[in-house]
């Protein structure tokens, strides 16, 4: 019984898809891709639409502030620049990306009703130089000592490993 229900849903979905292709840009959604960039780097957000009958494209940030409307800059942020604006594409760059830039960006195609596509910007944090603590003076052979290694700013969390004479030390030693 559930198989029949699924088949019915699939055939309805393909019928709806074929109708949207006939309508042109009225039924088409903009296409975007998620972007991952290292903190301090530059992210390029691209929104494409195959068929467009002179309908405007817009990029908005996670706070829903308009960044670009077609080729017109809407937000005063010197890090955000236009890469390409045409009836089929709106690409923008965000330079010197920080962790606070991470989030879901929206591309809107101003048909009736408005069609949107989301692109998630992931920002990777660069870890600070590791700091080793736990020693204050030379240690005699055979003495026990405990060392601690810390770093911060890493996203995702840093993978800390210990090495002795270029050989990795596994587990507690």
Automatic annotation (TrEMBL):
InterPro entries recorded for this chain? Ig-like_dom (IPR007110), Ig-like_dom_sf (IPR036179), Ig-like_fold (IPR013783), Ig_sub (IPR003599), Ig_V-set (IPR013106)
Does this entry carry the keyword Repeat?
Answer: yes
Q: Which processes are annotated in GO (biological process)?
A: homophilic cell adhesion via plasma membrane adhesion molecules
Write out the GO cellular component annotations.
neuronal cell body membrane
- Record-linked Pfam families: Ig_2, V-set
Q: Would you indicate the residue range of the signal peptide?
A: 1-15
Going by the entry's taxonomy, the superkingdom of the source organism is recorded as Eukaryota
SMART domains to which the protein is assigned, alphabetical: IG
Q: Domain (Ig-like): give its ranges.
A: 30-122, 130-173
Record key words, sorted = Disulfide bond, Immunoglobulin domain, Repeat, Signal
The protein in question is named: Cell adhesion molecule 2-like
């Amino acid at each position: 019984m559930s198989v029949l229900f699924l088949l019915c849903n699939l055939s309805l979905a393909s019928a709806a898809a074929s109708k949207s292709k006939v309508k042109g840009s009225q039924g088409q959604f903009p296409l975007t891709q998620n972007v991952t960039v290292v903190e301090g780097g530059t992210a390029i957000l691209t929104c494409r639409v195959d068929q467009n009958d002179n309908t405007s494209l817009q990029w908005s940030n996670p706070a829903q502030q308009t960044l670009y409307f077609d080729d017109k800059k809407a937000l005063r942020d010197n890090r955000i620049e236009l890469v390409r604006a045409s009836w089929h594409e709106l690409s923008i760059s965000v330079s010197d990306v920080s962790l606070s830039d991470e989030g879901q960006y929206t591309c809107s195609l101003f048909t009736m009703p408005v069609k949107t596509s989301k692109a998630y910007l992931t920002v990777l944090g660069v870890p600070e130089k590791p700091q080793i603590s736990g020693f204050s003076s030379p240690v005699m052979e055979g003495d026990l000592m405990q060392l601690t290694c810390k770093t911060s700013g890493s996203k995702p969390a840093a993978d800390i490993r210990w090495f002795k004479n270029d050989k990795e030390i596994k587990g507690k030693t």
